[in-house]
């Protein structure tokens, strides 16, 4: 049986996100032995985490524009190739000093920044509207899947070999992916010589975009409230997301006296503490995508679906995060982290797919620009967390700030989100 060409694109894009996150999250585990070896303080750790997103910030908007203008295949392929090479060079730069490590982290961020706008741009041209949310949800499930893999396999590699091999082995996976991406994937469905006429007709009739895009005026974006509701929701979601992507292993590993859980890196309990919430996240993202598509298919208004699932996701996550610092039981904390991720997955049908509603052929640019705004949170939040730990030695304030950010982002989106096409 011939596998539909768009399903191959979804699978390879899922793998791109998976590889993106294993190369992003690996240092969250490797930083524990690296800090011991190089003697960095908590503020320096925060800088190492956040500097990655400086590069990410600059390449995200550019990547979206290039993907919309010239096609996502080349843009995403080059991004994965470059960041994979830079990941493999990380140990060498680490041994050349703190500033050298910061430099290679910026380069990795520059490579990874094009990931999401590139495949979003391709999906606007490949994926029929009724399949869009689930396709995006499946692809985004590469985030928790990559996180699981990075947390668990990094700990195993460090215990069995050394932290350096985390970067060597993870980077090599991107090189393998690049070979198959170049061989089997195309920017536009009409370029694929193996696609069936039936599938091509379906895509041409139902995919939201069928042409290249011109450049969008930045001022019109920044004054457009439906677009800014996506950007602000992205910023607030990223504040919580990237705080915990960076610091969850350290939270689990930190002494109980600091508000951490005091679990050793080589303990099986450590693996379980970071594993279960990520597994729930994979399931929740896919389920949330199918739920939103099903509700729309059954006649519910698109705007109502977007706002409802987003509000439940953001407010539910905020409540659970605010409860975690009050708990003493490891089991209760894991349960709350799992429920947090379940709520977060539900929100995939809200702000996470809203870009193509506002401007189908500009999807890559809209994802890139809103993502760049969101990346400001990814730059700032690890710095803030590092400073809080350095000054207070406590995790409570970190959790509360994340909860407040989610409440604000969910409220702003609820008030100002829209689905009417804004950019034509």
Give the overall silhouette. Answer: globular
Written as H for each helix and E for each strand, in order along the chain, the element string is HHHHHHHHHHHHHHHHH
Strand proportion, as a percent range, falls in under 5%
Write down the overall mean pLDDT: 87
Specify the structural class. Answer: mainly alpha
Q: Count of DSSP E strands?
A: 0
Low-confidence stretches: none
Description:
The model has no long low-confidence stretch (mean pLDDT 87). By secondary structure, this protein is an all-alpha fold. 78% of the residues lie in helices and 0% in strands.
Quick summary of this structure?
Helix content is 78%, strand content 0%. It has helices at residues 5-38, 42-70, 72-94, 98-112, 115-126, 132-140, 142-160, 164-184, 197-206, 218-222, 225-253, 268-297, 302-323, 330-346, 355-358, 363-391, 396-416. The relative contact order is 0.16.
Jot down its keywords.
single chain; 424 residues; mainly alpha; 17 helices
Layout of helices and strands, plus pairs?
Layout: H1 5-38, H2 42-70, H3 72-94, H4 98-112, H5 115-126, H6 132-140, H7 142-160, H8 164-184, H9 197-206, H10 218-222, H11 225-253, H12 268-297, H13 302-323, H14 330-346, H15 355-358, H16 363-391, H17 396-416
């Amino acid at each position: 049986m011939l596998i539909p060409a768009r399903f191959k694109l979804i699978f390879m894009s899922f793998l791109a996100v998976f590889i993106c996150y294993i190369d992003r999250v690996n240092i969250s585990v490797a930083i524990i032995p690296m800090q011991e070896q190089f003697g960095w303080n908590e503020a320096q750790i925060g800088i190492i985490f956040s500097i990655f997103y400086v590069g990410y910030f600059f390449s995200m908007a550019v990547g979206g524009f290039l993907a919309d203008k010239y096609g996502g295949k080349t843009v995403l392929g080059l991004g994965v190739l470059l960041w994979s090479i830079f990941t493999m060079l990380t140990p060498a730069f680490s041994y050349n000093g703190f500033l050298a490590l910061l430099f290679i982290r910026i380069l990795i961020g520059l490579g990874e920044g094009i990931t999401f706008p590139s495949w979003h741009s391709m999906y606007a041209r490949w994926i029929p509207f009724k399949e869009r949310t689930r396709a995006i949800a499946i692809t985004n499930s590469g985030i928790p899947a990559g996180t699981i893999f990075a947390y668990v396999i990094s700990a195993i590699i460090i215990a069995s070999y050394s932290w350096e091999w985390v970067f060597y082995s993870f980077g090599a996976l991107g090189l393998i992916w690049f070979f198959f991406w170049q061989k089997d994937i195309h920017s536009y469905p009409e370029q694929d010589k193996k696609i069936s006429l039936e599938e091509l007709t379906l895509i041409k009739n139902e995919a939201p975009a069928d042409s290249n895009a011109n450049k969008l005026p930045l001022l019109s974006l920044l004054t457009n409230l439906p677009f800014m509701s996506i950007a602000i929701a992205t910023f607030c979601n990223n504040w919580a997301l990237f705080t915990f992507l960076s610091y969850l292993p350290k939270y689990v590993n930190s002494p109980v006296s600091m508000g951490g859980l005091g679990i050793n890196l080589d303990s099986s309990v450590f693996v379980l503490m970071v594993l279960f919430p990520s597994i729930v996240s994979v399931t929740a993202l896919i389920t949330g995508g199918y739920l939103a598509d099903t509700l729309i298919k059954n006649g519910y208004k698109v705007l109502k679906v977007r706002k409802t699932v987003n509000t439940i996701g953001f407010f539910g996550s905020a409540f659970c995060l605010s409860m975690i610092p009050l708990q003493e039981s490891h089991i209760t904390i894991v349960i709350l982290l799992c429920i947090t991720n379940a709520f977060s997955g539900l929100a995939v049908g809200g702000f996470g797919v809203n870009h193509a509603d506002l401007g189908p052929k500009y999807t890559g640019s809209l994802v890139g620009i809103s993502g760049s705004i969101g990346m400001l949170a990814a730059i700032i939040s690890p710095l803030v967390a590092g400073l809080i730990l350095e000054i207070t030695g406590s995790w409570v304030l970190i959790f509360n700030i994340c909860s407040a950010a989610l409440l604000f982002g969910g409220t702003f989106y609820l008030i100002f989100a829209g689905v009417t096409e804004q950019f034509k």
